[in-house]
Structures are given as C-alpha cells and as structure tokens.
Amino acid sequence: MRSILRLCLALVLSSGIASAQKIINGDAHYMETKQFQFISEFFLGHEVQGNRTILRTQDDSRQGLYFTLKLTKAFLGQSNLQAILEVIPADDKETASYSFDLSSEKIKKNLYLGLTGADWVDPSVQPMAWRVRILSGKQEITSWQSFLWEMPAK
Questions:
Q1: Is the Cβ–Cβ distance between 55 and 98 less than 8 Å?
Q2: Which pLDDT band holds residue 107 (cuts at 50, 70, 90)?
Q3: Which of 33, 74, 104, 131 has the fewest CB atoms within 10 Å distance of its CB?
C-alpha cells in the first residue's frame, strides 16, 4: 500500500514540475544588429546577453527575425533541452523548420530564437504563422504558437 502511495505522490509531483515549465508569452519581430550592441561589448570584446539566452541560425549575423519568448522560472538554469521553431513566411506557403540546441546553454528568463543571415534577409516579410516547441529528449514540455498556426488549411 505504501509503495502505491509513493508512486502516486511521485507522479503528482513530477507532473507539477513539468507543468510549471511554460512559455508565458511570445512575439516575433525583426531586429537590427545595433539592438544587440551595448557599451559593455566594446570593453569585454564579446556580446553580452544579460537576462537573455540568444540563439541564432547564423552565428556570424545578428540581424534577422527573432522569436522572443518569456519563460517561467522553472526553466532557469536547465540544460539538455531543444527548441524547434516552425515558420510559414507570408511570401511562401511552405513550412520551414529550425532546431536550436539548448543543451549547452544556461536558460534565462528571456529566450531569443533568431532567424539570421540568409535564413531571413527581408525585414518587410513577416511570418504568416509560427510555432515554437521546447523538448526534453523527444517529449514536448511546452509550446507557443501564433493564432494562425491553428487555422485549418483551405
């Protein structure tokens, strides 16, 4: 009987922890290189991320379309995660998928996923629909998507 109670308690606690890992809100917008440059970068010689975890499809380019996500505190400091970003650009009907490895990153409260360089060159093109999924292994922990992502294809 005690082992059954322990098992039930473990399941309740583990589901509570997983459900606490959520994306509070998200947005997509085009950002210029200068929006990432701070005075401290000139003194330190490298980009300072502050309270953000910034990942880009092209590491050598900062300019591009960014999906900014505000995460719950349950993500802070976690590793071994992966973010999958799926985007349908307004000028194309095909879904493009991008994977971001979060395993080597210390996750901070604000996660910036950037489509930079050749992956998003035109600031006037906006995504028609998008979805971000955060995975631990093959299990989806949480996701955030635009309103149009749910719309049925006609």
A1: no
A2: confident
A3: 104
